[in-house]
Amino acid sequence: MELVVNGEKHETETSNLLELLEEFDVNPDLVSLKVNEQVVNKDRIEVTELSDGDEVEMLFFMGGGN
Questions:
Q1: By CB neighbour count within 10 A (0-12 exposed, 13-18 middle, 19+ buried), where does 9 fall?
Q2: Which fold has domain 2-60?
Q3: Which of 48, 55, 56, 62 could, after both became Cys, cross-link 17 (CB 3.0–4.6 A)?
Q4: What residue spans define the domains of the chain?
Q5: Band of the pLDDT at 7, cuts 50, 70, 90?
Q6: pTM of this structure
């Protein structure tokens, strides 16, 4: 299926959000997620099913500065 991940088309065989994170080697504890503009709670990552054409945003927070 084809997804849009962070604005770029991505072909995948994953069926849920957790599998997609594993495919991208992303720790679920270190990212906030949106699917089709809806925020996904951390306790719903494993059960959030993906469908062809879904838009997934992975939001990473970084510290820094003075």
A1: exposed
A2: Ubiquitin-like (UB roll) (3.10.20)
A3: 48
A4: 2-60
A5: very high
A6: 0.89
